[in-house]
Write a structure and sequence with these properties.
This protein is of the alpha+beta class and 375 residues long. The chain has 2 domains: 192 residues, no CATH class; 97 residues, no CATH class.
Length: 375
């Protein structure tokens, strides 16, 4: 089972009709009730962190399968449907300004779930670092505008966040899962799913960027005098003029396409230097360190010290459970069947009217490929 990932969705304006949203809340609550009894809290978190299952759930609830609202509306319905005291699961955050309330909501829901102070602080850190990584360490052109943390009374969590690309009008969804996480800054996504593969992306979380991460830390721990000297070598009068001196055209192309910053916040750099971060995660966690700081340090590491980061889009899979032609890998029928069966069971045993059950099952049927015909 691929537990985390990314999905690309076109931006659709407007809001879900109230009548539809009310039914989505009712149906999602019924499904969550059944899944809690049959499989427990951990399985719900694991399923929500799987892009394929999450997408199927949004379709079953009645939302447009190919829309950015798939993320925001489904998460909103789940937030209203899940009761911390009843399900042992809470959802903090949301879209836009609501996402900024995530730390406060973690505090409030954490108290309702009787979490320890250390658990609550760990959840706040996970929320902040996941947003930092997908907004700054992975620079793919998608700016986050939606963020939710779904967590249990055991302190386990799933994060679902979404970014918007103003140029192509698509949204990209990022999934995280605590039980599948080994590092915040080294390959944090075990699977990444999307339609659009960007031609060039600065991915500081790639294993290929491990040396660059080390050099970035060394740079900020060293004297500010040396950092200013290195930056001056690249920005003599005009950044683009100095880049003409580099013989390798790909180096110039990378910097131009990423719109590398023309200035460095030396006050922030002094703060980082005084902090003396032990590793890249500590460096990234410092407040004020954002995309421009990450790009500037990556540029110096690359062009001055030869520590080249990954410039590949971290999207790995086009399908969450495989493609019928075996690309990028064959369909895992067992995983697909298991996901379908869990949703079907949730619908059939839900305490809702027969009419709503039939409509939900019909929607589920519409998204299930006829495996016997296709394979």
């Amino acid at each position: 089972m691929r537990k985390t990932g990314i999905a690309n969705l076109p931006l659709h304006p407007g809001r879900a009709p109230r009548w539809l949203f009310a039914r989505m809340v009712k149906l999602s609550r019924a499904i969550m009730d059944v899944l809690t009894i049959e499989y427990g809290k951990d399985e719900i978190l694991r399923r929500l962190s799987d892009p394929f299952w999450f997408q199927a759930l949004s379709c079953v609830l009645g939302f447009d399968w190919h829309s950015s609202g798939t993320t925001t509306v489904t998460c909103g319905a789940l937030k209203e449907a899940l009761n911390p005291e009843e399900h042992g699961i809470a959802i903090a955050g949301g879209k836009g300004r609501v996402s900024r309330k995530t730390p406060d909501e973690i505090e409030d829901f954490g108290e309702k779930l009787a979490l320890s102070t250390s658990m609550i602080e760990n959840l706040k850190y996970a929320s902040r670092m996941a947003a930092k990584v997908d907004n700054a360490a992975i620079q793919d052109g998608y700016t986050l505008y939606h963020h939710v943390l779904i967590f249990s009374e055991d302190g386990k969590w799933t994060i679902i966040q979404q970014g918007m690309n103003e140029n192509n009008h698509y949204a990209r969804r990022y999934h995280w899962y605590s039980e599948n996480l080994r590092s915040y800054v080294n390959e944090p996504h075990s699977a990444i799913v999307g339609d659009n593969k960007e031609s060039i992306v600065l991915d500081m979380t790639s294993s290929e960027s491990s040396e660059t991460r080390k050099v970035c830390v060394d740079i900020v721990r060293d004297s500010l005098k040396n950092l200013k000297r290195d930056w001056g070598l690249l920005t003599k009068g005009n950044l683009q003029t100095s880049l003409e001196e580099w013989k390798n055209p790909m180096e110039k192309q990378r910097v131009e396409l990423l719109d590398m910053p023309r200035h460095i916040n030396w006050g922030l750099m002094r703060k980082i230097h005084e902090f003396q971060p032990k590793n890249y995660e500590e460096l990234l966690s410092i407040r004020g360190v954002g995309p421009k700081t990450v790009r500037a340090l990556a540029l110096i590491s690359d062009l001055i010290y030869g520590a080249k980061p990954s410039w590949k889009d971290p999207i790995k899979y086009t399908f969450a459970v495989g493609g019928k032609d075996g690309v990028p890998f064959p369909v895992d029928r067992k995983v697909m069947d298991e996901s379908i069966e869990i949703l079907r069971l949730g619908i059939e045993e839900a305490k809702i009217g027969n009419d709503e059950k039939l409509k939900a099952l019909r929607r589920l049927r519409n998204i299930i490929p006829n495996l016997e015909q296709k394979f």
